[in-house]
From TrEMBL:
<keyword id="KW-0028">Amino-acid biosynthesis</keyword>
<keyword id="KW-0560">Oxidoreductase</keyword>
<protein>
    <submittedName>
        <fullName>Glutamate synthase (NADPH/NADH) small chain</fullName>
    </submittedName>
</protein>
<keyword id="KW-0314">Glutamate biosynthesis</keyword>
<feature type="domain" description="4Fe-4S ferredoxin-type">
    <location>
        <begin position="35"/>
        <end position="70"/>
    </location>
</feature>
<dbReference type="InterPro" id="IPR009051">
    <property type="entry name" value="Helical_ferredxn"/>
</dbReference>
<comment type="pathway">
    <text>Amino-acid biosynthesis.</text>
</comment>
<dbReference type="InterPro" id="IPR006005">
    <property type="entry name" value="Glut_synth_ssu1"/>
</dbReference>
<dbReference type="InterPro" id="IPR036188">
    <property type="entry name" value="FAD/NAD-bd_sf"/>
</dbReference>
<dbReference type="GO" id="GO:0051536">
    <property type="term" value="F:iron-sulfur cluster binding"/>
</dbReference>
<dbReference type="InterPro" id="IPR023753">
    <property type="entry name" value="FAD/NAD-binding_dom"/>
</dbReference>
<dbReference type="InterPro" id="IPR017896">
    <property type="entry name" value="4Fe4S_Fe-S-bd"/>
</dbReference>
<dbReference type="GO" id="GO:0016639">
    <property type="term" value="F:oxidoreductase activity, acting on the CH-NH2 group of donors, NAD or NADP as acceptor"/>
</dbReference>
<dbReference type="Pfam" id="PF07992">
    <property type="entry name" value="Pyr_redox_2"/>
</dbReference>
<dbReference type="InterPro" id="IPR028261">
    <property type="entry name" value="DPD_II"/>
</dbReference>
<dbReference type="GO" id="GO:0006537">
    <property type="term" value="P:glutamate biosynthetic process"/>
</dbReference>
<dbReference type="Pfam" id="PF14691">
    <property type="entry name" value="Fer4_20"/>
</dbReference>
Length: 486
């Protein structure tokens, strides 16, 4: 433990952000790195708990008290070693993880939790700057070949671990650039694409091959893959968005969030956008859906110069902060205010969409909505809702973005042709902990298996799956388990 009394002496230092007016003028990251003194103080706040709940809160099992100690002592090399022992890509999680570790931090019971995510970002930035993170080719090659389908964080983590074990890894990606949602989905202002490119370049140096514009099951023959590779990892993500089949859904100006976000990611790189441009400029925008994707639509709409941005969520208003009778560490979902909300947006909870109203040319001109009231059970769980009489209203808008989550992976093509069994939610069926599908040599990881989730879970599943593939190919594995045991 770095400083025994640190948690008593210091309050949490929130990372400084560029002023909202200034950051709305660009798409770059705007959260400033801690100064040396700030990160030292923040690490000193760690209580080094006997039972580190933060570690069990982290899907990767990051060894948080130990890296906090190393950071407090400014031993960046040791901090890097500890962090990389459980997490292949701390430069991603340090920027965009919702930090379940912080929700589980014991200091959070009485004070603000340790700012673990910012510390992680600081370690990874220092590690790259000082050359502690560098390409490391495996010393021996096993002669076995593994194909990874999908280059998001799950596919990347599986590839990195399998390559470390000495297997020859080829990653197939149907998009023009690797990275999955890190690349085409999550806006640049949350995660700069230079950060993703830097990691891909490093993995290529380590011997991993990325094949882009390679849609397996469409322009890449499955039989060739099955013949040429001893094992296959499916990491294609959860790509089918939830729709809102209200009257008028076909109005011009109603779009899925991902179509909108991906276009802006492409524009930022001067890549051509092959479909009709979806732009918020000068429009009244309504975002339907209150999660991360919805927030990213707000930030992007404001940067494009929307006239107004409103976000609706059908669920009831969540509590703003923790109250004393809430259980720890399993609080109910609290109201999340993201940096995109801070930049400007009206929010409404308990609002249902009744109709997309069109003008005579089929263009969207308004959204008919109504307030709803929820029946809540004893544990606070919303059960069902009814409309509040007299609250129906038409709200003028020219762009509606549907951000209500994702249902499951695409079945046509890859999964259907392979004959992969699906679970009752439509995700790839592969038991957690085993990750093997109904076809022995084929494994699955990330959103394609667990349903829409988080980057930290995708990395965790990619690592775990790699170990199972390694065991399948070699009879045993020396890759680290979640508990860090090799
Ligand atoms: P993906 O990242 O979806 O990658 C799958 C890849 O597989 C894609 O590139 C796809 O093109 C490719 N693919 C699919 N089928 C084929 C095929 N047949 N052949 C070749 N390639 C194929 N999580 C967070 O933790 N923090 C956030 O801030 C956050 N923000 C988000 C914002 C948005 C807009 C969205 C949509 C999600 C966000 N998430 C966030 C969730 C997170 O991005 C996902 O949980 C994570 O990316 C899942 O990783 P994955 O590797 O399983 O799949």
């Amino acid at each position: 433990m770095g400083k025994v009394t640190g948690f008593l002496e210091y309050e949490r230092t929130p990372p400084s952000k560029q002023d909202a007016k200034l950051r709305l003028q660009h798409y770059n990251e705007f959260v400033q790195a801690y100064e040396a003194e700030e990160v030292n103080r923040e690490a000193a706040r760690c209580m080094d708990c006997g039972v580190p709940f933060c570690m069990s809160g982290c899907p990767l099992g990051n060894v948080i008290p130990e890296f906090n100690d190393a950071v407090y002592k400014a031993d960046w090399e040791l901090a890097t070693t500890i962090l990389l022992s459980t997490n292949n890509f701390p430069e991603f999680t340090g920027r965009i993880c919702p930090a379940p570790c912080e929700s589980a931090c014991v200091l959070g019971i009485n004070k603000s939790p340790v700012s673990i995510e910012e510390i992680e970002k600081h370690i990874s930035d220092m590690a790259f700057a000082k050359g502690y993170i560098k390409a490391e080719e495996p010393l021996i090659r096993t002669g076995k070949r593994v194909a990874v389908i999908g280059s998001g964080p799950a596919g990347m983590a599986a590839a990195a671990q399998l390559n470390k074990a000495g297997h020859e890894v080829v990653v197939y990606e149907r998009d023009d650039t690797p990275g999955g949602l890190l690349n085409y989905g999550i806006p640049d202002f949350k995660l700069g694409k230079d950060i993703v490119r830097r990691r891909i370049a490093l993995m290529e140096k380590e011997g991993i091959v990325f094949k882009c514009n390679a849609n397996v099951g469409v322009n890449v023959e499955l039989n060739t893959l099955l013949r040429e590779f001893q094992s296959i990892v499916l990491a294609g993500g959860s790509t089918i968005p939830r729709d809102l089949p209200a009257p008028g859904r076909s109005a011009i100006g109603v779009h899925f969030a991902m179509d909108f976000l991906k276009q802006q990611n492409k524009r930022n790189r001067n890549f051509s956008v092959d479909q009709e441009a979806i732009l918020a400029t000068g429009k009244d925008v309504i975002v339907i859906g209150g999660g991360d994707t919805g927030s990213d639509c707000i930030g992007t709409s404001n940067r494009q110069g929307a006239r107004s941005v409103t976000q609706f969520e059908i669920m009831p208003t969540p509590p703003k902060s923790r109250t004393e009778n809430m259980p720890w560490p399993q609080y109910p979902m609290l109201m999340k205010v993201t940096s995109s909300h801070e930049e400007g947006c009206e929010r409404g909870w308990g609002v249902n969409t009744k109709e997309f109203i069109q003008d005579e040319n089929g263009n969207l001109k308004a959204l008919k909505v109504v307030d709803v009231e929820w029946d809540i059970d004893k544990t606070g769980r919303p059960l069902n809702f009814k409309e509040v009489p007299g609250t129906e209203r038409d709200l003028p808008c020219q762009l509606v973005l549907l951000a209500m989550g994702f249902l499951h992976p695409q079945k046509e093509g890859l999964l259907e042709k392979l004959g992969i069994e699906l679970d009752n939610r439509g995700n790839v069926k592969a038991e957690e902990g085993k990750y093997q599908t109904n076809i022995a040599k084929i494994f699955a990881a990330g959103d394609m298996r667990r349903g829409q989730s988080l980057v930290v879970w995708a990395i965790s599943e990619g690592r775990e799956t790699a170990r199972k593939v390694d065991e399948y190919l070699m009879g045993h594995s020396k890759l680290a388990t979640k508990d860090g045991i090799a």
